[in-house]
Design a protein that fits this description.
2 copies of one chain form a homodimer. Helix content of chain A is 57%, strand content 12%. Chain A has 121 residues and is mainly alpha-helical. The first copy, chain A, has a 3-stranded antiparallel sheet with strand order 1-3-2. Chains A and B meet through helix 1 and helix 6 of A and helix 1 and helix 5 of B. Chain A binds a DNA duplex (30 and 30 nucleotides) through helix 3 and helix 4.
Chain lengths: 121, 121
Amino acid sequence: MQLAPVTLTAIASPRRREILRLVWRQELAAGDIHRAMPDVTFGAVSLQLKTLVDAGLVEVRTESRHRYYRARRDALGPAAKILEQMWDDALWRLKLAAELEQSRRGPQPTQPKTSPRRKRS
Amino acid sequence: MQLAPVTLTAIASPRRREILRLVWRQELAAGDIHRAMPDVTFGAVSLQLKTLVDAGLVEVRTESRHRYYRARRDALGPAAKILEQMWDDALWRLKLAAELEQSRRGPQPTQPKTSPRRKRS
DNA sequence: CAATTATTTTAGTTACAACTAAAATGTCAT
DNA sequence: ATGACATTTTAGTTGTAACTAAAATAATTG
């Protein structure tokens, strides 16, 4: 399989990666996708979906009034791994942050926030 | 190893991919790199080099008047494979094109290029 | 048919990446 | 120091990606 340059530009956009993540393992209607990202208009989401479809990275199925989108994971080839890894890493970091937050509330913070010096002079 | 989003935007640019290819397996001075892409100014190349260095994808070594650049293949992680594959594919296509060209000069073309007409008028 | 829902498309705005030309910086030789 | 070379940095231009608001399309329901 050949990885087109358009694939690289497609996954370089955070917004499109967000969409890809949503439809990675399940079909979602355009409206569902928009509901998951309320900071942009429906039109914006629709345009990005079109970009992804044109790049061959997402497939669409029309059913009655709805249009269901789903990632074509195979078409992404080696890029699929990169995305999954990025998402895993992000989860990992979130988890770490949450644990840190937790411990900050608890009895003894394991690490002072800044200036690790014990004492000077 | 964590693959930063900046890596994706870095390799999404054809110009930066061109540079990465040049310094993939050898050090090159900024001037050498510029000489290999005469369609842009030296300044433009220098800016892209800076972008690549800032993204951590290229390292630089200063020696006397020159600055030598080289790809950090390990820092690219899974993206390295993608790039190499793209370049291999491009070579592959070039090779096919060359063979086609060759056979066009030879006795029997295996495939007419377009419009199989023998002669006009 | 009209009204409702789901989505796309158009036209226009804005932010930014990639570039150029020119000035600035740094390094070596004389 | 002066000049030549190698490169970076600055300031300004331009093309385009990402967006918004609104109009257009399309399917469904009463």
